[in-house]
Amino acid sequence: MQHVKRSAAKAMGILRTPPGKAFAPARDRGIYVVWIALVWAGMLAGFLPDLARFEAETPAPPLVLHVHAALYFVWLVCVTLQIAFVELRRPALHRRLGWWLVGLSVALVPLGLVSTMVDMARSSAGTPYEPQFLGLEFQSLIVFSILLGLATQMRRDIAAHRRLMILLAICFLDPGTSRAWGFFSPIHPDGMFGWWLRFFWGNAAMLLAMMGWDIRRHGRVHPALLAGGALITAGEVAAVFLEFSPWWHRVAGGLVMAWGWTG
């Protein structure tokens, strides 16, 4: 048990803000407003044009999908409020909402899993039916859960905590930005890279922008951003691998058949 605690403490140490003035919170003032605004822009650009299609589905989308969408919207509003409280220098409100946000974040994981399985079970009766897409959904839930634990543990390290919270939002960005790519992009490349580009271009753009800010503003990338970005990238690589693996198609199809429930 002591070994586990020491290993966990060492892992947390890797994420800590380096000593010195480089990552002083005042030097990042205002930038988190930009980051969360970009997250909102990516989600709205993808989901607003798709709303009419979703509502016109036959049979109508089940209640669980509406609940999941509503809970995610509330979650994103709460993250935005947390950033606003920091910018407005209201730390008491930030702390008060913080634990509610943790609880909401935890609830998103099982609800997201149920919604994913229900949606896939619904699509199994028609075309296109792509059960292998579960790989993308599963990895995003796993990465989100890990980042949530890290962000909670690092809450007293302001610079690390804020970056990890934005990375949490990036975890669930691809449903919006991939739809936006489908609606607005003139190119649709094939193959592994094309699939990755379609689904994860928004994630990559956000990570590169955040790293670029750190380098320009602080002279280096924050360790928490490096580690969190690497985790997100590893999840994306796993999703691409599973998408193009025939064995996973069979496994995912079996999972959907075993699940069965369409809401």
Automatic annotation (TrEMBL):
The keyword Hydrolase does not apply. The keyword Membrane applies. The chain crosses the membrane at residues 30-48, 63-85, 97-118, 133-152, 164-183, 195-213, 225-248. Keywords: Membrane, Transmembrane, Transmembrane helix. This is DUF2306 domain-containing protein. It comes from Sphingomonas chungangi. The lineage of its organism: Bacteria, Pseudomonadati, Pseudomonadota, Alphaproteobacteria, Sphingomonadales.
